[in-house]
What we know:
The chain has helices spanning 17-53, 62-85, 91-131, 136-174, 178-182, 184-209, 214-225. By secondary structure, the protein is mostly helical.
Amino acid sequence: MFAWETSSDVSGGGGSWVGAALSELTVTAGSLTLFSIFILILVYWADILKKYFHPGSRRSLPTVTFFGLVSALLALEVINLICFLCQLYSTEGMVLFNALLLAIVSIVCVCEISIFSHRFRTVLKTLGAINQVSTDSQVRRIVWITVTGNLFFCTRALLELVFAAVLLVHYKTYGTVAKVFTHVWWDTYTLIKYWSEVTILALMLYILQSRFTTDQQSSTSQQQQYTKVPDAEPGDV
Length: 237
């Protein structure tokens, strides 16, 4: 049982436990909200790919799958809160739980983004070759989402895993984790975490709202290559 005793420790029975718990839950809720954007994209990618790779299989509604995954994450947060309220661990335990949770979700997102992105680009290129149309803009958009998403989630997973390891090492060595939250690296960890979220959110909004005109320009140039056939004269028949 993680009964961590620190100078800033607030357990479920402490006087300021409400504020401490709400603060940690609010911070984690913001991160999970950002993560849900990528989860939503992955759910729709999986649904579209299932249509092409498994056309005869039964497909569930993407919204149902999305809300199911988000509900699972919320359920884990509820379990974390219940453990805190039962005084199984303190606010530092909540922080460790959330760090491990976000690290696991980040690793899963990296794997899923890489797999689905490769398959999606293959489908788009195949459809473009069959229909004789350019799909460069869609492929480019997916590549941007893949690169920015993987960079963000790899950074976040590494950051959370290092932070969790530091907490465990300090607790095992000193019997307390107070030094971690008063060290200058705590501020560095916080800045990197929040600024990475702001950066990825701005990039995602830019990518999703950008207008790619490659397809339109390509189709226009193809139309210009065709020569108009003159109308047939009655005497030509």
